[in-house]
Amino acid sequence: VIDEPTHTLAKLAVERVKNQQVMGRRFGDFVAEGEPEASIYYVDPTVGVQCRTRVDLLHPEGIFDLKTTAYAHSAAWVRHALSLNYDMQAYMYSLAECLYAGRSTPLPFVFMTVENAMPLSTAARRAGMTFLEEGAKKYQHAIGSYKACLDTDTWPCAGGEEVIEITP
């Protein structure tokens, strides 16, 4: 349940994102033509583990992921994206779509971003080669670690008991 001002802001954000230009067209056109919430199942070609992705929007011309953000400027957004492993997400989704479609060259992967507060700035941020390469490194490490845990039935945990304090 959300209040009326929040609902109004969300509807305005949707309209702004749909009107954002991406690859020479309005994003809303891609939405009308694409498949939202597309699940892609695949077997990782390196370690043979079954995987699943869920793409926000799959279109014959690109893969789109929608993100709300507090960062309108690119440099700040990229730092935040890397800290949240969006690069690994972009690589994994691109890999999945390539395997599904039987292609070796990935479709463009585009983050459609909108600020989560006024002025609701939007941007179409396409994952470049270095972004995807960094994601590939993270993905290979993660999938390799997962496979090792599966093989040994050992699941390390960084947990424990501790007292936490806030320093003055």
Give the key terms.
168 residues, 5-stranded mixed beta sheet, 5 helices, 7 strands, globular
Spell out the blueprint of helices and strands:
Elements: H1 4-19, E1 21-22, E2 25-26, H2 27-33, E3 35-43, E4 50-59, E5 62-69, H3 74-83, H4 86-101, E6 109-115, E7 122-126, H5 129-152
Parallel strand pairs: 5-6
Antiparallel strand pairs: 1-2, 3-4, 4-5, 6-7
What does this entry look like structurally?
By secondary structure, the protein is α+β, with helices and mostly antiparallel strands. It has five helices and seven strands; from the N terminus they run H-E-E-H-E-E-E-H-H-E-E-H. A hairpin with a 6-residue loop joins strand 3 and strand 4. It starts with a helix and ends in a 16-residue tail after the last helix. The mean pLDDT is 96.
Short description:
The chain has helices at 4-19, 27-33, 74-83, 86-101, 129-152, and strands at 21-22, 25-26, 35-43, 50-59, 62-69, 109-115, 122-126. α4 (86-101) crosses α5 (129-152).
Biggest sheet architecture = 5 strands, mixed
| C-alpha-based Rg, rounded | 19 Å
Overall number of strands: 7
Shape: globular
List low-pLDDT spans: none
Into which percent range does the helicity of residues fall? 40-55%
Structural class by helix and strand composition: alpha+beta
Spatial gap, N to C terminus:
38 Å
Number of helices: 5
Task: Give the spatial strand order of the biggest sheet.
Answer: 3-4-5-6-7
Task: Estimate the strand proportion.
Answer: 25-35%
What is the arithmetic mean of pLDDT? 96
- Following the backbone from N to C, one meets helices and strands in this order, namely HEEHEEEHHEEH
